[in-house]
Design a protein that fits this description.
CATH architecture of the largest domain: 2-Layer Sandwich
Strand content: 15-25%
Oligomer: single chain
Number of helices: 18
Distance between the termini: 44 Å
Structural class: alpha/beta
Shape: globular
């Protein structure tokens, strides 16, 4: 370690101690969690506490000698944190090593007193590790009967070993915190220009990182940014932002962005609507939250702005430039004045919506595990998880409804009923059905039908599920006679599809699968994938599910197929096909 210090200028010991020189309560941990613990200790010690931290720099081989050197003689209790759970073990690896080392040292008279040692787990289920959790761990240490083998960050209603913590506890109150909810991913260079511009000021320190969505379509990323006049050490997510910007209004509603904004914060949403109509379009829940928190609401139509603005020597995206305009104390530029008439303040003084539009069994659904996950609900209990490890399939149907400017439209008069367009659809959103006259809907103007060419005295209909179609154009390119064309979409109720679903599936025993026109009558058991729009992998999987049904075994390695097969909230299979994930790596030759 001394040689490393000479070569790099950075000095590390096997165990580094920080905190009060006469600390009574100590946390032992390693990796990124140590930075969060250190900042929290500095904050609490300034208020009169005697807390300390030992950072483990080298876990294996474990050195008892250097651990004892780092341990203050005043220590009364220790909490050892592991980011893992070992079923069947009495404790986790780091805790066992620390306990064994101190026990042997006490037996061999190397230390006068044996501190109380408890173990704990953090970061399970990818939960963030925050100062509020550190504070709860120290509070547990100070109890006469501390909870051992505890878990922090999740709610364990099975073993009841989780520690409660106050989410309102904060230590870095001087930093300005901002969240940017963005659709898909933009150029990294343009996004980083904002942080560089802010950081170039000698008065500013900037921290920025992103949450990246794993989905390949309808995806989002959330940028977390902190600005302060002193160095920032906060390796955890922002949950109480001063400013939030959303490229889509759905982020404010479906992704619970408003849960992460503080009272009297600023909310900017991209919208083409006027301020009055926009306010009326918001749900009762969103309006109520904005009024309750006294949020200042603004809208901007990004399509009416230039893609980038020159701020100083940097070229900054329009979305980020809006942040600089609304927070003009950080950077001055004449170009910001161009946004004066583009960013509109919304009058939120009166609530116009009082009844949230309900869907069938909405309240029941939102209380389920799937409903909580789709809503981004952090309050998921261990008891919510199925004890046998089996999960619901066909969950991709619950993905956010797509907003399309155009959608495929079927011209029944020119249709030759070939079926290639249906086979090309990666979503399974374009379907064909043949049915008896008794199912013919004569009431709906939009519901079309013609006489079937393959089956006498039966009706033939092509229908599009507007909620799941992504307008990838695959069906249009596959149709030689151009029966399918894109037409403007006005977001009308998907009533024709709802009626189409009620029509029974055609008898598979009467289908000649060697003819595409008939084979496409088979119900797909793979649909609504979250792969790339127009994904070339999905149509093959959909076709296989039609041909083989519950006799199909799907084995995948990684890539797009793992996203729409192995994520519980985006499972594209309708129960019957079996799938198996392998550990092999895909080779590209």
């Amino acid at each position: 370690m001394d040689i490393f210090s000479i070569l790099t200028g950075r000095r590390y010991r096997l165990f580094d101690y920080v905190g009060h020189p006469e600390a009574e309560h100590i946390i032992i941990t390693m990796a990124s969690s140590s930075e969060t613990v250190e900042e929290t200790i500095n904050y609490l010690n300034a208020k009169g506490e005697k807390y300390g931290l030992i950072k483990v720099r080298l876990f294996r081989p474990f050195s008892t000698k250097y651990l004892l050197k780092a341990l203050p003689s005043s220590c009364k209790s220790i909490a050892v944190l592991d980011r893992t759970k070992e079923p069947g073990s009495t404790a986790e690896p780091l805790c066992l090593d620390v306990a064994q080392s101190l026990f042997n040292a006490y037996q061999n008279n190397k230390i006068e007193t044996l501190p109380r040692i408890i173990g704990g787990r953090y970061g399970l289920s990818s939960k963030d590790f925050t100062p509020a959790m550190v504070n709860a761990i120290f509070n547990n240490l100070k109890q006469e009967q501390s909870k051992n083998n505890f878990t922090i960050g999740i709610i364990d209603d099975v073993t009841h070993l989780s520690l409660p913590y106050d989410k309102r506890f904060e230590i870095n109150k001087s930093a300005f915190q901002a969240l940017f909810f963005e659709e898909d991913s933009h150029l990294d260079q343009s996004l980083s220009s904002l942080e560089k511009t802010l950081g170039n000021s000698k008065f500013n320190y900037v921290q920025s990182f992103k949450e990246i969505d794993y989905k390949k379509s309808e995806s989002k990323q959330v940028k977390h940014m902190r600005i302060d006049s002193k160095p920032i050490k906060a390796p955890y997510l922002i949950t109480n932002a001063d400013f939030i910007a959303c490229q889509n209004v759905l982020f404010a509603d479906m992704d619970n962005a408003l849960n992460n904004i503080q009272s009297k914060g600023t909310l900017l949403i991209n919208s083409s609507l006027t301020s009055k109509i926009f306010w009326q379009s918001l749900s009762a829940n969103v309006q109520g939250a904005i009024i309750e928190k006294k949020v200042k609401l603004y809208i901007v139509n990004l399509k009416n702005l230039k893609t980038h603005y020159r701020i100083g020597e940097a070229s900054i995206s329009a979305f980020d430039t809006c942040f600089l305009y609304l927070n003009n104390g950080y950077v001055y530029s004449n170009n910001l004045a161009q946004l004066c008439t583009k960013i509109i303040s919304v009058n939120t003084s009166k609530q116009t919506n009082f009844n949230t539009i309900s869907i069938e069994n909405k309240s029941d659904f939102e209380s389920t595990l799937l409903g909580k996950l789709l809503r981004g609900n952090e309050e998921i209990l261990v008891g919510d998880l199925p004890i046998d490890g089996s999960y619901q399939t066909n969950t991709s149907i619950f993905n956010t409804t797509r907003t399309l400017k155009e959608k495929p439209d079927w011209n029944s008069e020119s249709c030759i009923q070939f079926g290639a367009f249906s086979m090309a659809c990666p979503q399974g959103a374009l379907r064909i059905k043949v049915y008896e006259n008794e199912y013919l809907d004569t009431k709906s103007i939009g519901f079309k039908s013609i006489a079937s060419k393959d089956f006498d005295l039966m009706n033939y209909t092509i229908q599009i599920n507007e909620d799941q179609c992504n307008a990838c154009n695959n069906c249009i390119e596959a149709c030689d006679v151009k029966t399918i064309k894109l037409k403007p979409h006005f977001n009308m109720e998907n009533s024709d599809w709802k009626y189409f679903k009620s029509i029974p599936e055609f008898d598979r025993t009467k289908i000649d699968i060697t003819k595409i026109s008939q084979q496409q009558l088979q119900e797909p058991l793979f649909k609504y994938s979250t792969g790339d729009d127009g994904c070339g992998e999905a149509p093959y999987l959909k076709l296989l599910s039609q041909l083989f049904g519950d006799r199909l075994l799907v084995a995948n390695a990684t890539g797009a197929s793992s996203i729409f097969f192995w994520d519980f909230t985006n499972d594209s299979l309708v129960e019957k096909p079996r799938r198996k994930r392998s550990c092999m790596v895909k080779l590209v030759i």
